[in-house]
Amino acid sequence: MLDNRNVNEESMQGIILMNLYSDDGLASIDNSALWDKFMLDFKKAFDVVEKDPDYFLGCAIEWDQETGVIKLDASKYLREVISKFDMVGLTQPLYQLQQA
């Protein structure tokens, strides 16, 4: 987290909350100018591709611009896991647990 709330220059005040996992990242900002300055410095050290977020850690990101609500949808990831373990169409457990 970059906390620039106490900087004298008003245009550079703000917070950047960045979540990184391996080669995937997601950031929340409250000041676009601060983000632009941060990314200029960041790109000097790292090879970075910026784009609007659509997925993070297997979850689809859905943003309702009217309400400002952000939702994470893990259904695609869950379908991939179910398929990987050959469980597509399975409606009952493979093994019945004995009651104690």
What does this 3D model show about the protein?
- The chain is an alpha+beta fold.
- The chain folds into 2 domains: 50 residues, no CATH class; 49 residues, no CATH class.
- 24% of the residues lie in helices and 28% in strands.
- It has 2 helices and 6 strands.
- The strands form 2 sheets. Strands 1-2-3 form a 3-stranded antiparallel β-sheet, covered by helices on one side.
- It is elongated.
- The mean pLDDT is 85.
Contiguous helical run count: 2
Report the span from N to C terminus: 49 Å
Please tell me the total number of domains: 2
Spans where pLDDT lies below 50 across 5 or more residues: none
Structural class: alpha+beta
Helix content: 10-25%
Average pLDDT reading: 85
Using DSSP, what is the number of strands?
Answer: 6
Q: What is the global morphology?
A: elongated
Main beta-sheet annotation: 3 strands, antiparallel
The radius of gyration computed from the alpha-carbon positions, rounded to a whole number of angstroms, is 21 Å
| H/E topology pattern | EEEHEEEH
Name the beta content range. Answer: 25-35%
- Spatially, the strands of the biggest sheet line up as 1-2-3
